[in-house]
């Protein structure tokens, strides 16, 4: 699935010539960063950041512009800045579900590192979009609250998990999600509430995918229930994951969605057509779990895309099933 970055438009003129090296190009202009307490808090835009450093696959060329935001004001201001300069942008978490193009991204990558957490002691957690999802799974399970045990092995952020409606081990993010706060492309903050029916999700789908005026997710509120078995369950899920998935290799988790009821899982289908271990360039189908494609070193996005194409063709030819990608390909 190719992803359209938000607000496709010509690059801004203030950037000057593209640089190969990481180089600061300046902070937000004063007209679009009204709410900072001090200059020190203004996010710094960096030119030429290598996206291979920001994706679990370790693949991708340079971003035209990159900014890391650590609080809501910085995120809102960064989005307003992109809008004012007609700059396309995308929001990024841990890059565990993205395939960046070998040429990079001709826009601004906004990395959320908004890590605040507020808990009420009764299973309600309001967490910033950059909070690591795996840590949230461990933290909540240790505190005896159930519902996010599955998260402890997921290498993404809260923002990415909400956006993808992450799931594993029979649990899904939506089941315990109460509210999501986001900023739209005009820089306005808004909230969607589950009790109002505004968070309808299905398998790996959330209302945020395809939302035309989504800027970026700011925070999510989860309501969990007391569960004495939560910590044991979380440990069991993690142990099983380590046995069945190549967790120590460079991947982006499962590449294909499972086809659905009555069908085998995508991994089983790929194994059945004999493609485990198939290699194109530096990319390889995992020997442990065939729905994982590994960067064995120096893999290009084009290697991964070729492997995806071969897998789809072979599975369709031999089983009649059309596999669909779960990972998001981000074109230049
Ligand atoms: N079940 C499993 O074992 C695994 C699951 N995963 C899944 O992948 C997810 C990836 O998380 P993560 O690595 O953080 O995501 P990524 O950084 O890979 O981003 C994936 C997409 O999510 C969107 N996104 C990320 N953060 C935000 C945000 N703050 N606001 C709005 N959109 C956002 C972006 O959409 P856009 O491009 O439109 O801006 C982006 O393309 C996990 O949470 C999980 O769902 C990954 C690995 C293993
Ligand atoms: C990895 C991801 O999520 C994973 C999640 O971690 C696990 C655990 O709950 O369940 C899903 O995998 P999955 O359907 O392959 O689950 P598994 O339990 O590993 O395998 C299902 C069945 O397929 C078989 N299988 C799996 C892989 C393989 O190479 N060969 C094979 O035969 C397994 O033996 C099992 O009988 C999610 N994948 C999808 C696409 O839904 C991800 O989202 O990135």
- What's the helix-strand series? EEEEHEEEEEHEHEEEEEEHHEEEHE
**CATH fold category name of the largest domain:** Uridine Diphospho-n-acetylenolpyruvylglucosamine Reductase, domain 3
Question: Main sheet, how many strands, which sense, barrel?
Answer: 6 strands, mixed
**How far from one another are the termini?**
14 Å
Identify the bound ligands: NADPH dihydro-nicotinamide-adenine-dinucleotide phosphate, uridine-diphosphate-2(N-acetylglucosaminyl) butyric acid
Q: Kindly state the percentage of residues in helix.
A: 10-25%
- What structural category characterises the helix and strand content? alpha+beta
User: Radius of gyration, rounded?
Assistant: 20 Å
CATH class of the largest domain: Alpha Beta
On the 0-100 scale, what is the average pLDDT?
A: 89
Based on Cα principal axes, name the global outline. globular
Low-confidence stretches: 8-40
- Number of beta-strand segments: 20
Beta-strand content bin: 25-35%
Tell me the number of structural domains. 3
GO molecular function, one term: flavin adenine dinucleotide binding
Function: Cell wall formation.
Subcellular location: Cytoplasm
Pfam families: FAD_binding_4, MurB_C
């Amino acid at each position: 699935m190719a992803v359209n970055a938000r607000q496709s438009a010509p690059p801004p003129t203030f950037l000057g010539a593209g640089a190969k090296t990481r180089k600061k190009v300046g902070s937000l202009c004063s007209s679009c960063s009204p709410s900072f307490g001090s200059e020190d808090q203004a996010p710094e835009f960096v030119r030429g950041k290598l996206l291979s450093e920001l994706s679990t696959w370790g693949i991708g060329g340079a971003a035209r512009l990159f900014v890391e935001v650590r609080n809501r004001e910085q995120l809102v201001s960064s989005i307003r800045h992109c809008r004012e300069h007609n700059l396309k942008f995308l929001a990024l978490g841990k890059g565990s579900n993205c395939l960046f193009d070998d040429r990079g991204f001709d826009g601004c990558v906004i990395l959320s590192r908004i890590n605040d957490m507020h808990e009420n002691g009764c299973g309600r957690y309001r967490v910033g979009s950059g909070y690591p999802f795996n840590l949230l799974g461990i933290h909540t399970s240790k505190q005896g609250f159930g519902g996010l045990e599955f998260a402890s092995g997921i290498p993404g952020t809260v923002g990415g998990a909400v956006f993808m409606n992450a799931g594993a081990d029979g649990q899904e993010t939506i089941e315990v999600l109460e509210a999501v706060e986001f900023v739209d492309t005009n820089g306005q903050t808004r909230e969607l509430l589950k009790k109002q029916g505004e968070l309808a999700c299905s398998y790996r789908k959330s209302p945020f995918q395809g939302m035309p005026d989504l800027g970026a997710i700011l925070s999510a509120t989860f309501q969990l229930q007391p569960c004495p078995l939560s910590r044991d369950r979380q440990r069991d899920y993690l142990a099983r994951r380590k046995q069945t998935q190549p967790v120590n290799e460079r991947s982006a988790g499962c590449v294909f969605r499972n086809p659905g009821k009555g069908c085998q899982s995508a991994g089983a289908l790929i194994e059945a057509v004999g493609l485990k271990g198939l290699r194109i360039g530096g990319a390889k189908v995992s020997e442990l779990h065939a729905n994982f494609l590994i960067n064995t070193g120096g893999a290009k996005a084009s290697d991964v895309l070729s492997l995806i194409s071969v897998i789809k063709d072979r599975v369709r030819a031999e089983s009649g099933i059309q596999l669909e990608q779960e990972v998001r390909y981000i074109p230049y």
